[in-house]
Amino acid sequence: MSKLMVSVSGVRGVIGETLTPSVIIRYISAFAQLINGKKIVIGSDSRVSREIVKMLASSTLMNYGYTVIDLGIVPTPTVQFLTEQLEADAGLVITASHNPLEWNGLKFIDSNGLFLSPKKCEQLFKLADTGQFNYKGWDQIGKLETYSEAATDHINAILKLSLVDKKLIRSKEFKVVLDTVNGAGGRIMNQLLTELGCTIIHINAEETGMFAHTPEPIPENLKDLAERVKNEAADFGIAVDPDVDRCVFINEHGQAIGEEYTLAMAVKLVLSKKLGHVVKNMSSSRAIDDIAKYYNCLAYETAVGEINVANKMIEINAVIGGEGNGGVMLPEIHIGRDAPVAAALALQFMAEMNKPLSEIKADLPHYEICKLKAPIDTVDPDKVIDYFKTQYQKEKLNDTDGLKISTQDWWVHLRKSNTEPIIRVIAEAENMEIAEKIARQFMDEIKSLS
Ligand code: MG
Q1: Is 97 annotated in the active site?
Q2: Sequence-ordered alpha helix ranges (H) in 86-173
């Protein structure tokens, strides 16, 4: 049986197994109590179970006196953006991001539109565990409202960005194959690309939650999209995950350019107009550091998790940030991973570069990342990490989140999983052969310890 996953990214579980009505009510009650507000914005991705979770969550929130503003099926970044725009005390997204369709979950948003801080998450989880809830009486209950303009508001804000030259992008008349995996990106991505003058061949466009393929937007799940880009002789392909915070590109030959390059294109575009600090998580490509260095700017690294990147971006007033998994965070609109923003910036970049995506990628710093999972069974993952810390003490180490060992030619990031008895081994080098060799070498070493 699956486990309920509880982390800074929220709560995720399998409907009817680990994410049951009582679990949902418990976490929502804790959230309502922790925020102690009056107004909350709520949205969901397209999962079949969305209404169950939404009704449970909404009625619980109303029992705490909240006015619940339902945005309908919308991307996670749209809920974040609207939480700020509508001046709500909090936001809630009902989504399990890229997990398969039997999953659902809760992403908790603070009044500033950012995910709850790790500290507040801890308080929330503790409160959920103790179950000391103080519901309001009949005369203090809240109400339910709907707001149907959320996606339009979000798109309008993107089209107004100083970096996005609508006229230039439209003049390119891009032909795009779009795969929204029957998730929450169907309407918003189509509408955005239409506004940007694209001819769209839209596959898996229905927001039914019946995901047409494994929803994580990684190359092995995007074969139909890649094929279609080639067959249609399109300029490129775009894929997003079900809650539309990750965005990846396929080049004109039907090859995935790698999820790391969504952020790389955005960073290059932003820094070419405005110099400033860049933030990424520890598992993101060195290509970002190289681009920042080229512009004499600094790139900072944080622990994995959107909120960690977001907090650092605010602290140092970064001009751009994100995660290498296709998550771009642009403070000019809102600090949160946003696939529609990522798509708009990439289209702007391609329009300015005025050459095929394969050539644009070839001009960016080139690295390959290999991601493996090392089973650790009964061994304490912290001891494994400590072992490598001693073993590689002469190299550049970063132990903010697991351990990252960096050398001139490669880096490896070892990170324990919160949900499985494994250590994630992520290695990057100038080509896949070396990256894989390094990752395997660490896998073998971890194996020898158990
Ligand atoms: Mg997601």
Answers
A1: yes
A2: 118-130, 150-159, 166-171
pLDDT at 236: 98
As a whole number of angstroms, the distance between CA 122 and CA 128 comes to: 10
DSSP state for residue 318 in the 8-state scheme: -
Q: In angstroms, what is the span from residue 245 Cα to ligand 1's centroid?
A: 5
Please give the span between the terminal C-alpha atoms of the chain, in angstroms, as a whole number: 25
Residue 47 CA to residue 102 CA, distance in Å, equals 8
**What sign for the dihedral angle of Cα 405, 293, 166, 161?**
positive
Q: How far is CA 287 from CA 115, 251, 261, 412, in A?
A: 27, 18, 8, 15
118-127, 289-298, 376-385: lowest mean pLDDT where? 376-385
Nearest CA to 417 among 427, 426, 408?
A: 426
Is residue 135 exposed (0-12), middle (13-18) or buried (19+ Cβ within 10 Å)?
middle
Q: Considering 97, 283, 285, 406, which one is annotated as catalytic?
A: 97
The mean of the pLDDT values for the chain is: 96
Give CA angle at 151 (199, 116), nearest 5°: 130
Strand order in the sheet with 403-406: 368-375, 422-429, 411-416, 403-406, 396-398
Mean pLDDT to the nearest integer, 309-320? 98
Q: Which tokens go with 224? A: 């139909």
DSSP notation for 28-94: HHHHHHHH--SEEEEEE-S-TTHHHHHHHHHHHHHTTTPEEEEEEE--HHHHHHHHHHTT-SEEEEE
Query: How many angstroms is it from 209 CA to the middle of ligand 1?
Result: 14
**Number of other CB atoms surrounding residue 377 within 10 Å:** 8
Query: Do residues 341 and 332 make contact, with C-beta atoms less than 8 angstroms apart?
Result: no
Q: Is the pLDDT of residue 305 over 70?
A: yes
Beta-sheet pairing, 90-94 with 39-44: parallel
Mapping DSSP onto H, E and C, the string for 251-291 reads CCCCCECCCHHHHHHHHHHHHHHCCCCEEEECCCCHHHHHH
Distance 46 CA to ligand 1 centre (A): 12
